[in-house]
Amino acid sequence: MSAGRWLVRAASLAAALGLWQLLTSLDVELWLRFGQFPTVGEVASAFGDRLVTGPYWQDLGHSLRRIVVGFVLAAVVGVAAGTAIARSRWAADLLGPLVEVARPVPAIALVPVAILLLPTNEQGIVFITFTAAFFPVLVSTRHAVRALTPIWEEAVLTMGGGRLRVLCSVVLPGALPGIFGGLSVGIGVAWICVISAEMISGEYGVGYRTWQDYTVVDYPGVFVGMATIGALGWLTSTAVEFLGRRATSWLPRPAERAPSRAARRALSATPPAAPSPAPALDKEPVP
């Protein structure tokens, strides 16, 4: 990414923070009650105080461990189940109805089920995180595998390859763009649900600490939690996208932007190079 684009992104963030500071410092009350919001300076001061405390990093570690374990399990099981449903009629008949019935249920609504089913709150939060990411990965994998053209599979079978070779050489590599699309969606949904689960039944974690700050009316602390959640979500989403680009590096990338109007005028004003004369053909001697 060019330096100009980074500058635009930094300026956008700085403008948003500046507007926030202006509205809260002036106690603007136009319909939205900015007078009750903490200022950027107050949030930054609270954030600096939290960084030097042990509980902040402890909560950070708990949330990251829960999201990593739940998301990795969802990625493995979701890709396997989505591939099976797309490739096997038996798997589609057995698992398809269960998936379609369970998929519309919000993962956070499964908190009572997790509390009743699993022995500890920690396992329940991981279960909620797994469920949140599982369905986006499964659905995207199923669609990506079904969209593959059959000519590649037929080519491998013609050359003597078996089902395992088709799966490893055709199905999974061809479906990777769609799979990573589902993983990108899944990591975002997983963060939403893990924070919500920590607020409801957690003992540690960023979501738990944010809710505790709200109950004791520590609004700068609430915004510190929100900023932490946003940063963690951005970092994990960026990591998934980076892995996706590395895993699909063999795909053609979008072409560079078209030249500007001035560059096109300069190119059109440049006279074309004269074609080189064709080499003379040797004439055969006339008898």
Describe the structure.
This protein is mostly helical. 74% of the residues lie in helices and 0% in strands. It is built from eleven helices and no strands. Helix 3 runs parallel beside helix 6, helix 8 packs antiparallel against helix 10 and helix 9 runs antiparallel to helix 10. The longest helix is centred in the middle third of the chain and has 39 residues. The radius of gyration is 28 Å and the shape is globular.
Concise structural overview:
The protein has 287 residues and is mainly α. The protein contains 11 helices and no strands.
Point out poorly predicted stretches.
278-287
Order of helices and strands: HHHHHHHHHHH
Distance N terminus to C terminus? 69 Å
The average pLDDT value, as a whole number, equals 84
Helix-strand makeup class: mainly alpha
Largest sheet: none
Q: Which shape, going by the Cα principal axes?
A: globular
Determine the number of helices (DSSP H or I, runs of at least 4 residues).
11
- Computed over alpha carbons, the radius of gyration is 28 Å
Helix share of residues? over 70%
- Estimated share of beta-strand residues: under 5%
Number of strands: 0
